[in-house]
Structures are given as structure tokens and as C-alpha cells.
Specification:
By secondary structure, the protein is of the alpha/beta class. It has a single domain, classed as Alpha-Beta Complex (Maf protein). The chain contains six helices and seven strands; from the N terminus they run E-H-E-H-E-E-H-E-E-H-E-H-H. Strands 1, 2, 3, 4, 5, 6 and 7 form a seven-stranded mixed sheet that branches. It starts with a strand and ends in a 6-residue tail after the last helix. Its EC number is 3.6.1.9.
């Protein structure tokens, strides 16, 4: 049995390595990540992981793993920051506040059975000055990331508290992932 990682994220691949797992191949699914009208953050994250997993064609004996990480303030879903201006707006919103980081994982086993799990983490940023926000934006680190930040880098020094899965905020909750991979029949240590 071999694993297909439905993600081009180097972070997800690195996190899988912490479980002693090396994907046999990488497939980068191309799906529309636009939230549906009225869709709540948990449902959105779960739907994206499932759609990513289903978008990958499997060969006999393959298992696919897909994930999604969604940052939300209340019901508001913060997308990936594509420009410095979007990142600035997100960081100003997150400054001094708690927000949810919802990571979903979907595994489809060799028989075609899909299993999914959610991990919810509460992250609280310190109240950031405009200079701190601008310095973080200048680092280029948070572009292309949900909520405009990457916890595994410089942003970690701006986070006052975290309640939940650190690996989930990074992009792949390891406890949930390990559980799903074992249920799918992948041998783990």
C-alpha cells in the first residue's frame, strides 16, 4: 500500500515525515476554494479536504491524504493572503484577538472509503503595532497562507497563546492524520 499526498505544500510533506511517512507520490489537486454562500468555517475546511482527496486519481493499492487549513474570525473565513495589502488587513484584524485555525484531513483508502477529521485550535496574537505588522509583511513569510501568517516562522513570536494542535495550525494535525492513516491500513510505527 502506498500513500499519495494531495498537496504541493512542503510543510505537509515535512509534517508527514514526523510520522515516519514518505508519500510515494505528490499530486496537486486543482479545485475551486471559494467558500459557498453562507458556508461556515468548519464545513468549508472539511469540504475542501474532501474535494482535494477526491480530485486525485488513484491506482490500485494507493491511499490518498488531503488537508486544508482555514483561519476564521467568528464566521468570517480568512482566505490566503495574495497581496501585502490583503495580508495587512488580515493581520490588523487578528491583532490582539483570538481566532480559530481549523485543519481538516481526508484519507481515501484503497477500497475507496473516505474518512475525515477536524482539528480546531484557538490562536491569540498579541496586540501588534503597525511597525510589527509591516516588518512581518516585509519578511514575505505570510503570503499565500491562510490568515496571512505562518506559525512555523516569525509569526510564532507574535502569538500570545495557542490552545490545540500546533501541527494543525502548520497545516496537518498529526494526531488526526495518524489515526486516519492507520484506519486506512497504512503501517505506522
Amino acid at each position: 500500500m502506498s500513500l499519495v499526498l494531495a498537496s504541493s505544500s512542503p510543510r505537509r510533506r515535512e509534517l508527514l515525515g514526523r510520522l515516519g511517512v514518505e508519500p510515494a507520490r505528490i499530486a496537486s489537486p486543482d479545485i475551486d476554494e471559494t467558500p459557498l454562500k453562507g458556508e461556515r468555517p468548519r464545513a468549508y475546511a472539511l469540504r475542501l479536504a474532501q474535494e482535494k482527496a477526491r480530485a486525485v486519481a488513484l491506482e490500485a493499492g494507493e491511499i490518498v491524504l488531503a488537508g486544508d487549513t482555514t483561519v476564521a474570525v467568528g464566521r468570517r473565513i480568512l482566505s490566503k493572503a495574495e497581496t501585502p495589502q490583503e495580508q495587512r488587513q488580515m493581520l490588523q484584524l487578528l491583532s490582539g484577538r483570538r481566532h480559530q485555525c481549523i485543519s481538516s484531513v481526508c484519507v481515501i483508502d484503497a477500497d475507496g472509503r473516505a474518512r475525515s477529521r477536524l482539528s480546531e485550535t484557538i490562536v491569540t496574537f498579541k496586540r501588534m503595532s503597525e511597525d510589527e505588522i509591516e516588518a512581518y509583511i516585509a519578511s514575505g513569510e505570510g503570503l499565500g497562507k491562510a490568515g496571512g501568517y505562518a506559525i512555523q516562522g516569525r509569526a510564532e513570536a507574535l502569538i500570545r497563546s495557542i490552545a490545540g494542535s500546533h501541527s494543525g495550525v502548520m497545516g496537518l494535525p498529526l494526531y488526526e492524520t495518524r489515526t486516519l492513516l492507520r484506519a486506512a491500513g497504512l503501517a505506522l510505527g
